[in-house]
């Protein structure tokens, strides 16, 4: 065969193959590449949107955390104030109770002193009567001298 004819047929086969490739193979291939490119672009956009959403969520979490810390601090302050108020109220109640107990004890002591004085007056009056009996060597009439004993108790 002739070298020129071979080259010519090879050129025709090449152009036919190029035309078939461009007509039937190339469009689906470019369509698949374009679809893949579109999916990659959408994925990158979704990833970028995810990053911005994550940043916004982290900012919201930070603000919620700061709000929670402020609320916790306010509640702790309120609790401390309430505890101090309770302590002060208990202290005031304790003081009033102490004052009441002291006053009651003073009153009880005054009554006991008065009872002791009365008992001592009675004892002194009885001793005076017995002493007078011993001195006079006779019994003193209690009815006759009841007024005298009452006056003696009042003087003591």
Automatic annotation (TrEMBL):
Sequence intervals crossing the membrane: 6-26
KW Membrane (keyword) present: yes
Keywords recorded for this protein, A-Z: ATP synthesis, Cell membrane, CF(0), Coiled coil, Hydrogen ion transport, Ion transport, Membrane, Transmembrane, Transmembrane helix, Transport
Compartments reported by the entry: Cell membrane; Endomembrane system
Domain of life (superkingdom): Bacteria
Segments forming a coiled coil: 103-130
Cross-referenced InterPro entries: ATP_synth_B-like_membr_sf (IPR028987), ATP_synth_b/b'su_bac/chlpt (IPR002146), ATP_synth_F0_bsu_bac (IPR005864), ATP_synthase_B_chain (IPR050059)
GO CC entries: endomembrane system; plasma membrane; proton-transporting ATP synthase complex
Membrane topology note: Single-pass membrane protein
Gene3D superfamilies named among the record's database cross-references: 6.10.250.1580, F1F0 ATP synthase subunit B, membrane domain
Molecular-function GO terms, alphabetical: proton-transporting ATP synthase activity, rotational mechanism; proton-transporting ATPase activity, rotational mechanism
Subunit annotation: F-type ATPases have 2 components, F(1) - the catalytic core - and F(0) - the membrane proton channel. F(1) has five subunits: alpha(3), beta(3), gamma(1), delta(1), epsilon(1). F(0) has four main subunits: a(1), b(2) and c(10-14). The alpha and beta chains form an alternating ring which encloses part of the gamma chain. F(1) is attached to F(0) by a central stalk formed by the gamma and epsilon chains, while a peripheral stalk is formed by the delta and b chains. F-type ATPases have 2 components, F(1) - the catalytic core - and F(0) - the membrane proton channel. F(1) has five subunits: alpha(3), beta(3), gamma(1), delta(1), epsilon(1). F(0) has three main subunits: a(1), b(2) and c(10-14). The alpha and beta chains form an alternating ring which encloses part of the gamma chain. F(1) is attached to F(0) by a central stalk formed by the gamma and epsilon chains, while a peripheral stalk is formed by the delta and b chains.
Family: Belongs to the ATPase B chain family.
UniProt function note: F(1)F(0) ATP synthase produces ATP from ADP in the presence of a proton or sodium gradient. F-type ATPases consist of two structural domains, F(1) containing the extramembraneous catalytic core and F(0) containing the membrane proton channel, linked together by a central stalk and a peripheral stalk. During catalysis, ATP synthesis in the catalytic domain of F(1) is coupled via a rotary mechanism of the central stalk subunits to proton translocation.
Protein known as: ATP synthase subunit b
Gene symbol of the encoding locus: atpF
């Amino acid at each position: 065969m002739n070298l020129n004819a071979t080259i010519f047929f090879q050129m025709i086969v090449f152009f036919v193959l190029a035309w078939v490739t461009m007509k039937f193979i190339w469009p689906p291939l470019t369509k698949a590449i374009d679809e893949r490119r579109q999916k990659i672009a959408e994925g990158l956009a979704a990833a970028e949107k995810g990053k911005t959403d994550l940043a916004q969520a982290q900012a919201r979490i930070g603000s919620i955390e700061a709000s929670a810390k402020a609320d916790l601090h306010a509640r702790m302050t309120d609790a401390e104030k309430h505890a101090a108020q309770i302590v002060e109220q208990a202290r005031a109640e304790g003081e009033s109770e102490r004052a009441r107990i002291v006053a009651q004890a003073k009153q009880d002591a005054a009554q006991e002193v008065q009872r002791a004085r009365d008992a001592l007056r009675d004892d002194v009056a009885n001793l005076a009567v017995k002493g007078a009996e011993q001195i006079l060597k006779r019994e003193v009439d209690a009815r006759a001298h009841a007024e005298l004993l009452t006056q003696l108790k009042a003087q003591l």
